[in-house]
Amino acid sequence: MADSEAAPQVRYETPAPKVARIVLDRAAKRNAQGTRMTYELDAALRRACDDESVSVIVLAAEGDNFSAGHDLSMREPPAGEPGERVTLWGEYGGAGWEGLYTREREVYLEMTERWRNAPKPVLAAVQGGVISGGLMLMWAADIIVAADDARFRDNTGSDMGVPGVEFFAHPFELGVRRAKQFLFTGGWLSAQGALAAGMVNEVVPRAELGTRALALAEEIARTDRFTLKLIKASCNAAEDAMGRKAAMAAAFANHQIGHLQNMLMHGFPIDITRLPDSVRKGLEAAVAAGRGRLPQGD
Ligand code: ZN
């Protein structure tokens, strides 16, 4: 289990013919997604997509929780190396909002969109907490199998003064009315609630999550690889024809307004006054130590 600073945060496995399994391996941090995990995930997905022997990809997570969301510790660089990046925005050290905006586009919006458009079917197996940024990781998958202990929330609005995560798929995943309640309250959605909303495909006992996810992946892998790609492309095109991408662009702009409002009101991109003391002090210490990517000055 990886928990040291230097250890890989993502494992790559081939558990069955035609199936690759990518495992979030940062259980000690509840699989919080920082810069390193983001680019390790991207490299793993690229490897699976480049491998002609792979038809289906499983995305799983070590430990009790699929993902607690974005890593707010600011201990890692704002983006990957230039050759790893997926956008051409570039200026991560830009003054004012430029640097943080560039990171938001690269690491959160465009990277998740790229994963969502990976040509091969991706099946996410999720357990425990799937919180805020963790939802984005999960939503990038095509099929979601949830353990019965899985629970979902986006508390960016209720606890941090930001109107939902950057990859704003909530209305498409939950339906507009459920999405509003989910975001207005920041409350938990159970595995059964997610099933009823159509956000997950199946709910299975926790002990059976790994075996069921692999069995379903193997079943899918019996279909011709290229046919699977074409089916996925057609389904994704249908969702995009419903306006997903345009809606998400509007939401991303609103998300940036939320960050800027917090900068003006609190001096941080999030409303730290609502956070638990321990989290708030950690953020303040990171910025004081010069690790933050925050604008300089008052
Ligand atoms: Zn953001």
Mean pLDDT: 93
Indicate the CATH architecture: Alpha-Beta Complex
Poorly predicted runs are none
Instruction: Please tell me how large the radius of gyration is.
Output: 19 Å
Structural class: alpha/beta
Question: Which molecules are bound in this entry?
Answer: zinc ion
User: Which term fits the overall shape?
Assistant: globular
Proportion of β residues? 5-15%
CATH class, anyone? Answer: Alpha Beta
One letter per element, helices H and strands E, the order comes to EEHEHEEHEEHHHEHEHHHH
CATH superfamily: 2-enoyl-CoA Hydratase, Chain A, domain 1
Roughly what percent helix?
Answer: 40-55%
Q: Main beta sheet: strand number and arrangement?
A: 6 strands, mixed
**Looking at CATH, which topology would you report?**
2-enoyl-CoA Hydratase, Chain A, domain 1
Domains, number: 1
Distance between the termini: 42 Å
Descriptive notes:
By secondary structure, the protein is an alpha/beta fold. The protein has a single domain, classed as 2-enoyl-CoA Hydratase, Chain A, domain 1. Helix content is 45%, strand content 13%. The protein has 11 helices and 9 strands. The chain has helices at residues 35-50, 98-116, 133-139, 156-160, 170-174, 176-185, 191-197, 209-221, 225-241, 244-266, 277-288; strands spanning 10-16, 19-24, 56-61, 122-126, 129-131, 143-147, 151-153, 189-190, 202-204. It has a 6-stranded mixed sheet, with helices on both faces. A 3-stranded mixed sheet has the order 5-7-8. α1 (35-50) links the parallel β2 (19-24) and β3. The model has no long low-confidence stretch (mean pLDDT 93). The structure holds zinc ion (ZN). Zinc ion binds at residues 104, 162, 166, 255, 259. Zinc ion binds next to α10.
